[in-house]
Automatic annotation (TrEMBL):
<protein>
    <submittedName>
        <fullName>Dynamin family protein-like protein</fullName>
    </submittedName>
</protein>
<feature type="compositionally biased region" description="Polar residues">
    <location>
        <begin position="20"/>
        <end position="32"/>
    </location>
</feature>
<dbReference type="InterPro" id="IPR045063">
    <property type="entry name" value="Dynamin_N"/>
</dbReference>
<feature type="compositionally biased region" description="Basic and acidic residues">
    <location>
        <begin position="68"/>
        <end position="87"/>
    </location>
</feature>
<dbReference type="GO" id="GO:0005886">
    <property type="term" value="C:plasma membrane"/>
</dbReference>
<keyword id="KW-0547">Nucleotide-binding</keyword>
<dbReference type="GO" id="GO:0005874">
    <property type="term" value="C:microtubule"/>
</dbReference>
<dbReference type="GO" id="GO:0008017">
    <property type="term" value="F:microtubule binding"/>
</dbReference>
<feature type="region of interest" description="Disordered">
    <location>
        <begin position="1"/>
        <end position="50"/>
    </location>
</feature>
<dbReference type="GO" id="GO:0003924">
    <property type="term" value="F:GTPase activity"/>
</dbReference>
<feature type="domain" description="GED">
    <location>
        <begin position="788"/>
        <end position="885"/>
    </location>
</feature>
<feature type="region of interest" description="Disordered">
    <location>
        <begin position="67"/>
        <end position="87"/>
    </location>
</feature>
<dbReference type="Pfam" id="PF01031">
    <property type="entry name" value="Dynamin_M"/>
</dbReference>
<dbReference type="Pfam" id="PF00350">
    <property type="entry name" value="Dynamin_N"/>
</dbReference>
<dbReference type="InterPro" id="IPR027417">
    <property type="entry name" value="P-loop_NTPase"/>
</dbReference>
<dbReference type="InterPro" id="IPR001401">
    <property type="entry name" value="Dynamin_GTPase"/>
</dbReference>
<dbReference type="InterPro" id="IPR020850">
    <property type="entry name" value="GED_dom"/>
</dbReference>
Length: 917
């Protein structure tokens, strides 16, 4: 934005040239003579330069012939009663708007950071020397006043007239951030500004107001915001928000920019610098002393700038730290001394000692000294206005020593005379420097163009197409893989393995049942006439090699059940083979297809399955709930038993998504590398994969934590049986398998008990006779655990159905949501994420993405940014040149060292400016 600098090195956009400065009123002549005498007396080495000063003035006068007369009255002609609210600033802006506006635009472009020095005015002073009062007197605005340091960061005050006469006074405040906090301890920092590091320029709008009274509060809040860069600036605009007392840092090199507009306002801009400090309050804050000195010194060193040095007459001028800093940087020839608080002269101060200073005999500065009288603290608190301040100032210098022994320096007393002098000096500097600034900009543009030509880059018009080709090839191959098209089946094969492993893990957790219970004892005795099961003896555990057999032949899922129904006929008790067959005896089931339940299950999940022990289930049912109907199981017990085997499904689900993530990322990385291999090392390769990876990670996270988790919660809130017929069919199959296993188990128990009773094993023929004996087989086939097995049958049947439902729901959502997005939206996501179709920056972004060296591309972008700013600056000066080309002032006397062709653009004279004489 014009008028607001964009770097900390950008300081101030000066004013437009003064018109006809060599032809003031009679009293003005006296003023000029006094000024010349003081300039010559300020330095013995410059005494002979009076004629050269006059030459400069004549040149400036001729340069300004094309403008209306500025009517620079010196202030004595005008009575105190005629002073208006704007009189103290009006002379600074008349007839210099174009040049000041041009320089304001140059400041806003941040040309200072490109080593292009612009004329400006910097206000410098030690703490409590009345510096803020001088600023207020010149600008007409109030700045923060505290017993502590008031200016804790540079203030850039830019005053410019508005074009519409009906516009109201307006102030806009923004924060210019050119530095960020340094994380290293301030005492160890090696930066110029301890605690701060240079950063990319960033301008932040803070506030605007049409109230002069509110501006002080806004400036104070903006300063606090700059001292706390890690906090949202708007926090400090709150009425009850933190203020200067809530400081994260004591000082900041970042700038608070204040743009003030109003009809007929002068075109003037200047910097108010932090007051110099000689020592810190604590050892921890010792870093602030060099920070402020370095900050102020950076402004003071800039050639072409005027420096207003404020000194308190209540103390010894010899102790002025500000003047000492100017001498240290060899800048005294550019300094204007401003002596404040003349009503508080140090004891023993004589008229002669003051005259020696004003004559330049002591503590000489290039532009001599001015004395101003501003409001004291009591007067400020009483609410006196700037208009009142100027009246009281005039009255003060019209009395006492100032109107008697020191009267010959009267043109150096008062804010009005200081403003007049600033007007002349800044106007002269502006026009003298413009041709040189133009030449500097043009030279830098030429250097930038040369360097840009040496950097290889894909043309902007083809960079976007190159990237879209890569994206199209990659996204199409991903789509082919997801859809499993011919010669693109790798991912589909992997996906089938992953989802099958998930199903196997769920099946491995299917409930199991121990097929033998205490009620199975005494079967053999029950088959002997005249005996009963009560007379049977127990079989030793050593002989019970089948006591821990599980029902592994129970079908795992309903669709596998159908295979068994078609290919594996149910075995009747009469055809059950013995557990062990003699060697060489062929098994009657040797040709039978083995059910899927015989394959080994994943061990890590099988340990989480529910294991039912018949007698324990009987006891648990009796203890947990009672039904009013004998031998009936309470519904709540049944539902709890059905849901319990599902409670560990979180484990296989997590493994499933972990495997899916690993396999999918691996495959996508392979496809990405294949299509973007030639762009390795570029931002395109890194940024494009980052986008793809984020898509995969975000979708997988969503599928696992939201969709799959919802499905699991739904299952655990069951049981749900919406298709009773399917459930009944599954129960029938499971119950039949349980019956077969149980009958085989009971027949095995019969054989073991017979062996103990007969003291030998039954022969095959004896076993066949038992199978043909209906009475004995009826005893063996009798089921003592009928109700328990019916309950376990329901649990297992429900589990089988729930496994299919849960597995299919998760896999279906992955394919219908996630995989579909990869098929249909991957290309759009990449193009949008890479921003290659941005309306303004798309081609430029594409070029950067394709750059082979990130460092080289960063340098190219930096050069392009500088080029753009310099071109705007050049256009700004060209507009001014075309406006005044051929005017009388463009062909004035003096040797022209810089010009714009035959017409020229103001002289850059061999005769140096007055301050350099």
């Amino acid at each position: 934005m014009p008028g607001i600098p964009t770097r900390s090195s950008a300081r101030h956009a000066p004013v437009k040239p003064a018109a006809s400065a060599s032809t003031p009123s009679n009293e003005g002549n006296a003023t000029d003579a006094t000024v010349e005498e003081m300039l010559c007396a300020s330095d013995q080495g410059h005494r002979s330069s009076r004629i050269r000063i006059s030459s400069v003035r004549n040149d400036v006068s001729r340069l300004s012939e094309g403008f209306e007369p500025m009517k620079l009255d010196d202030g004595h002609k005008q009575s105190s009663s005629d002073v208006t609210a704007h009189d103290e600033v009006d002379p600074l802006g008349q007839d210099v708007k174009e040049a000041a506006a041009a320089l304001s635009q140059l400041e806003g472009l941040g040309l200072q950071k490109f080593d292009i020095s612009l004329p400006r005015c910097n206000v410098l002073g030690q703490q409590s020397t009345g510096k803020s009062s001088v600023i207020e007197a010149i600008s007409g605005i109030k700045t923060p006043r505290d017993t502590d340091t008031c200016t804790c960061c540079p203030l850039y005050i830019n005053m410019k007239p508005s074009n519409n006469p009906s516009d109201k006074w307006m102030a806009r405040v923004s924060l210019q951030r050119d530095y960020v906090l340094d994380s290293r301890p301030k005492q160890q920092a090696k930066e110029v500004f301890p605690g701060w590091m240079p950063a990319e320029s960033n301008q932040i709008f803070f506030a605007e107001t049409q109230s002069r009274d509110d501006l002080e509060h806004i400036i104070r809040s903006a300063q606090t915001a700059n001292l706390n860069p890690l906090v949202d600036p708007q926090v400090f605009m709150a009425i009850s928000g933190p203020r200067m007392g809530d400081r994260q840092n004591k000082f900041s090199p970042n700038t608070v920019c204040i743009d003030i507009t109003e009809p007929n306002l002068p075109s003037l801009s200047f910097f108010d610098l932090p007051g110099l400090i000689s020592q810190a309050e604590t050892e921890e804050e010792a870093y602030t002393v060099p920070l402020v000195q370095n900050l102020v010194g950076q402004y003071v060193r800039e050639e072409g700038s005027l420096i207003l040095v404020t000194c308190d007459l209540g103390t010894d001028i010899a102790n002025s730290t500000a003047a000492g800093l100017a001498r240290q940087h060899d800048a005294t020839h550019r300094c204007i001394g401003v002596l404040t608080k003349p009503d508080l002269l140090a004891p023993g101060t004589t008229d002669q000692s003051l005259a020696d200073v004003l004559d330049g005999k002591r503590y000489g500065l290039g532009h001599g000294y001015f004395v101003v009288k501003n409001l004291n603290k009591r007067e400020i608190q009483s609410g006196l206005s700037h208009h009142d301040a100027r009246l009281k100032e005039t009255e003060f210098f019209n009395n006492g020593r100032w109107a008697n022994n020191l009267r010959r320096f009267h043109s150096r007393f008062g804010t009005r005379n200081l403003q007049l002098y600033l007007s002349k000096q800044l106007a002269q500097r502006t026009f003298v420097r413009l041709p040189e600034i133009y030449a500097q900009i043009q030279t830098q543009l030429n250097h930038i163009e040369d360097e840009l030509r040496g950097i290889r880059v894909t043309p902007a018009h083809s960079a976007v197409r190159v990237i879209t080709d890569h994206i199209l090839d990659f996204s199409q191959e991903v789509r082919h893989e997801i859809e499993g098209e011919h010669e693109h089946t790798c991912w589909q094969n992997t996906w089938e393995v992953v989802q099958q492993a998930f199903e196997d893990a769920l099946v491995a957790m299917k409930p199991t049942v121990a097929t033998r219970g205490d009620l199975d004892e005494g079967i053999y005795a029950s088959t002997i006439p005249g005996t009963s099961a009560d007379e049977a003896f127990l079989i030793d555990s050593d002989d019970e090699h089948d006591a821990d057999v599980r029902m592994r032949d129970v079908p795992e899922t309903p669709h596998k059940k159908r295979k068994m129904e078609e290919g594996s006929p149910a075995l009747s008790p009469m055809r059950m083979p013995a557990k062990k067959q003699p060697a060489g005896t062929p098994s009657k089931r040797s040709g039978q297809k083995k059910v899927s339940g015989d394959k080994p299950m994943p061990a890590e999940f099988a340990r989480y399955r529910k294991k039912f022990v018949l007698d324990e289930v009987v006891r648990e049912i009796k203890q947990s709930a009672k039904s009013k109907i004998r031998d009936q199981i309470h519904p709540k017990v049944r539902e709890a038993m059905i849901i319990e085997p599902l409670t560990e499904w979180q484990r296989p689900m997590e493994v499933f998504f972990s495997t899916l993530k690993k396999e999918l990322l691996s495959r996508m990385q392979f496809l990405f590398d294949k299509n973007f291999a030639q762009r390795k090392g570029t931002e395109l390769f890194d940024n494009a994969w980052k986008i793809v990876n984020e898509i995969l990670q975000n979708n997988l996270h969503q599928q696992q934590t939201i969709m799959a988790q919802e499905s699991l919660v739904n299952e655990l809130e069951g049981p749900y049986t919406f298709h009773q017929e399917v459930f009944n069919q599954e129960k029938a199959v499971v119950r039949e398998k349980y019956r077969q296993h149980r009958q085989r188990m009971r027949f095995s128990v019969f054989l073991l008990e017979a062996k103990r009773h007969l003291r030998r094993e039954m022969t095959p023929s004896e076993q066949d006779r038992v199978r043909k004996d209906g009475a004995k087989m009826a005893v063996i086939a009798k089921e003592p655990y009928e109700n328990v097995l019916n309950l376990i049958t329901e649990v297992t049947a429900y589990y089988n159905i729930a496994v299919i439902r849960f597995h299919e729901k998760i896999c279906m959502r992955i394919e219908s949501k996630f995989f579909k997005q990869l098929r249909t939206q991957l290309r759009e996501e990449l193009e949008t994420g890479l921003r290659i179709y941005d309306e303004d920056d798309g081609p430029t972004i594409a070029q950067r993405l394709l750059a082979e060296s990130p460092e080289q591309e960063r340098r190219r972008q930096e050069l392009l940014t500088r080029k753009e700013a310099l071109k705007k600056g050049l256009e700004c000066l060209k507009d001014l040149r075309h406006k005044y080309e051929g005017d009388a002032w463009s062909s004035g006397g003096g040797s022209i060292t810089h010009g714009f062709g035959h017409g020229g653009f103001g002289p850059s004279m061999v005769t140096p400016p007055a301050e350099d004489v």
